[in-house]
Design goal:
By secondary structure, the protein is α+β, with helices and mostly antiparallel strands. The chain folds into three domains: 66 residues, no CATH class; 133 residues, PAS domain (Beta-Lactamase), CATH 3.30.450; 100 residues, PAS domain (Beta-Lactamase), CATH 3.30.450. Strands 6, 7, 8, 9, 10 and 11 form a six-stranded antiparallel β-sheet that branches. Strands 13-12-16-15-14 form a five-stranded antiparallel β-sheet, sandwiched between helices. A hairpin with a 6-residue loop joins strand 15 and strand 16. Helix 2 runs antiparallel to helix 3. The longest helix is centred in the first third of the chain and has 33 residues. The protein starts with a strand and ends in a 10-residue tail after the last strand.
């Protein structure tokens, strides 16, 4: 069947089956040439220019459905989960350092108690919503600024007794502390950045405190959701700073014999002692074997062992999850 007629043709054309007639469109003087085509459906004419839009719509719908089904690529092995976790945590720590560096720069230029400096500190905390507080401390260990205002009572305090204060003043470089108890009753970490005046004189440091489990959880929870993997993070002394079971946070799996069997202590002693590795360990009474791969995240003097754990069934294969 002849289906289309171009307006270049000057005569009437019939379908070969005689089912309908395609007429040359009536054109005005303003009608652009060679752009109108018609398709024959019985005896009616429909502009073919509408058909590409119809197929384009179908294509877009198919693409949307396809994207929704596939989603982003997920790590498919414990090693891939570990690599993404280490990279993500390091990136997050680095972003905190960058924010604190900017705060320190402004404080160095405008003064440790300046309004402009305080606004820079507030902005740094907004960049990292898990942050609890930021202190600005002089080289004499005196707190001269505290953000948010809930911590204003610390201004004027001498915090020279804090281990991290002495370390920050002595080394005068960006640092990440070990975990320490916060006044709110849970464990925290502080990232500090040195402050230098415009003449290069060391003035003190700015220190932002936050819960490490919150920072870590932002990175690792999406990686293991719906997978057979668990993630635990410990310091090199064996203290748990992140676990998918919150009650485990704060326990020391190396030093505290009450936290597990001697075999379990030995396992985590090996993990704490080496930056990376893999092993398997078993709970004989529970007939459970776990496969572990670990690596190290951390910047500016800290080392966090990132441990990816997979439970195996009695045959030594990954246990089913559902």
């Amino acid at each position: 069947m002849e289906l289309m007629e171009n307006n270049h043709y000057r005569h009437r054309r019939r379908s070969v089956h005689g089912e309908g007639t395609i007429l040359k469109p009536r054109l005005s003087q303003d009608t652009p040439p060679a752009k109108t085509r018609y398709i024959l459906i019985t005896s009616q004419k429909i502009p073919i220019m509408r058909i590409p839009a119809f197929f384009a719509t179908l294509f877009i719908i198919a693409m949307v459905i396809g994207t929704g089904c596939t989603g982003e690529a997920r790590p498919s092995s414990g090693g891939e989960v570990l690599q993404e976790a280490v990279t993500g945590i390091d990136d997050e720590l680095t972003e905190v350092r960058v924010s604190m560096g900017e705060s320190a720069r402004v404080l160095g230029e405008t003064g440790l108690t300046s309004t402009t400096g305080k606004e820079a500190v507030r902005q740094a905390m907004l960049n990292h919503p898990y942050a609890e507080s930021t202190l600005v401390v002089t080289k004499d260990s005196i707190v001269v600024m505290a953000v948010p205002d809930d911590y204003a009572g610390t201004v004027g305090s001498d915090i020279s007794s804090h281990l991290e204060t002495g370390r920050s003043i002595r080394e005068q470089v960006p640092l990440v502390s070990e975990v320490f108890p916060l006044a709110e009753g849970y464990a925290g970490v502080a990232q500090s950045y040195p402050i230098f005046g415009e003449d290069g004189e060391y003035l003190g440091f700015a220190s932002i405190a936050y819960r490490p489990d919150t920072l870590i959880g932002r990175v690792v929870a999406p990686l293991v959701d719906g997978t057979p993997y668990e993630i635990r993070v410990i310091q090199t002394d064996g203290r748990v700073i992140y676990d998918m079971v919150p009650e485990e946070i704060g326990k020391n799996l190396v030093a505290d014999s009450a936290q597990g069997s001697p075999a379990l202590q030995e396992t985590f002693s090996r993990i704490a002692a080496k930056p990376s590795g893999s092993l398997e360990y078993s709970f004989e009474e529970q007939h459970v074997t776990k496969r572990v791969v670990w690596g190290t995240a951390g910047i500016d003097g800290t080392e966090w062992r990132i441990i990816v754990i997979e439970s195996l069934d009695a045959g030594g294969v990954p246990a089913a999850t559902g």
